[in-house]
Design a protein that fits this description.
Elements: E1 2-3, E2 6-9, H1 13-24, E3 29-33, E4 47-49, H2 53-62, H3 67-74, E5 75-81, E6 91-96, H4 100-110, E7 115-119, E8 122-128, E9 131-137, E10 142-144, E11 148-150, E12 159-162, E13 165-168, H5 178-186, E14 191-198, E15 201-203, E16 213-215, E17 237-241, H6 244-252, H7 258-261, H8 275-281, E18 289-294, E19 301-305, H9 313-320, E20 331-333, E21 336-343, E22 360-362, H10 372-390, H11 404-414, H12 439-442, H13 444-450, H14 455-477, H15 481-489, H16 497-503, H17 509-520, H18 522-537, H19 546-550, H20 557-565, H21 580-592
Parallel strand pairs: 1-10, 2-3, 2-11, 3-7, 11-22
Antiparallel strand pairs: 4-6, 5-6, 8-9, 9-10, 12-13, 12-21, 14-21, 15-19, 15-20, 16-17, 17-18, 18-19
Pfam families: GIDA
Family: Belongs to the MnmG family.
Subunit structure: Homodimer. Heterotetramer of two MnmE and two MnmG subunits.
Length: about 600
Amino acid sequence: MSQYDIVIVGGGHAGIEAATISSLLNLKVLLVTFAKDKIGFPSCNPSIGGIGKSHLVYELDVLSGSMPILADRSGIHFKLLNSSKGPAVWSLRAQIDSSTYPENGLQILNGFKNLTIVEDEVTDILLQNERVVGVKLEKGQNIQTNYVVICSGTFLGGKIFIGKEEIKGGRYSEKNSEKLSNSLKSIGIKLIRLKTGTSPRLKKSSIDFSKMEEQKGEKDIGTFSVLTDKVENRISCYITRTNERTHKTIRDNLHLSALYSGNIEGKGPRYCPSLEDKVVKFSERNSHTIFIEPMGVDNEIVYVNGASSSLPVDVQYEYIRSIKGLENSIFIQPGYAIEYDALKSKQIKPTLEHKNIKGLYFAGQINGTSGYEEAAAQGYVAGLNASLSFLKREEIIFDRFNSYIGVLIDDIIKKDLTEPYRLFTSRSENRLYLRQDNSFIRLKEIAEKINIDDKRRKLYKKLFEESEELKKFIYKDSDNFILKSEYEFLKDPSYPFENFKNLLPQFSTKALLFVYSENKYKGYIEKYKRITKIVLENGERFIKDKKRLLSSPIISKEAKEIISKTEVEKVKDLYGLIDPSDIENIIVILKKI
């Protein structure tokens, strides 16, 4: 019987990060995946980053994760979203090459001598006295281990729906994992069904791009990783729109949609509806935006973002070809809905370990989330804590006050998730502090505690020192009246970053953006840190009298509704559920009881 310190089940975005951090911490690691050439393959749209999601990628870079490097290396089209707003919500987004991303992912993993990758399927989790002792593989081998991280994506009991056709699969033309699903149920894991969907893929040469609006990539907008000096835009994306003919085709065939036939048990993601959902729920709209996203530089496949569907293939042909520029399009793969098993809420700890089974960790869509970035962040946390537990080191809990990783995990372990969860900047009460540009400051202490001695740690240390030097230069050492006057302008929301950047060309863009943002939000940050300190110091205080809280005039109506419906014992149980100012008021009341 082979023996490993940790076994990672699944080679998606969560699996890559779990394997990466476990390998960096020098464990003997086994990664089990159906196919090595599909490691990190984008099952849905070919992009990394975006609103809220890019913050996770920046945080992973500070922590020596793989996704930031992979996004930069495989990126072929870059844009900065929300650039017209304040820097707190700026979000880098990269279109990735769907062929080179898995190649680069495998290359990174193959670089770890202590990591073994096998093409197989985990069919059973082996337990003894409520703790993991091993896993069983489909090809018959038993693996001895005390730590398992399950990163199953949509493969766990996956079922694909295209019209009335139902196909067992974890992804189009790929098998699912039913035995592992049954194994989890047999050891007391409670599962629910969730649903997501994906859009058709078309042949690039069959599309008339001249009828569409071109979206070129942007230059000099930064990179995901501190290791990357510069990224290159190699393709354009395009915008087109649906029309009344498109909508009529969908309305006339709704009865054939798996989504509306009642065949699908699971609930889909609220913020990524299918096209038939959009046509029904937003019937007043004459059109919806469709993004045409090439899946690679030398790739003939194009992803039709915004056209997710579970309608029959012939209906998909009809409505896609009603869209300007797609009249003669050739299908490579139809859109489909997919239903899969996920954990019922509140079964895992903040470390992502199961509450009742020692050594069993979960990451990604199995925890009820959607998105590559959310999966990657969870994979990192699960792999990290499983590894720290093996090494008999203290596990690390990411709190929502200091990171979006903490916001994500706090939400998924506390909330009753009945639909796939997606991270947004609006999920955080502290979003003016949780920015892309200060990830290296916020997670500095955790990175030092994990203690991965790599090039990134050295570069971030250098960036920290440069930022301190810049602040010192402006606050104390500059006799330049113009500079001091300009710096005061930073407090004006309309003052552009480019002005500040041009004023101090001797400093790096990363250091300048950090100082620019810190000054812009200085008052807010100081106020929030004060509230956070009070909240954290009183987190263990028991909530003894709910009625008194519910009758108090200083508690908001929204907070009262949540308190009345939620089982809370301590103040800390309210983190992330209600506004921090309400928690502060609750503490005031509790101190008087």
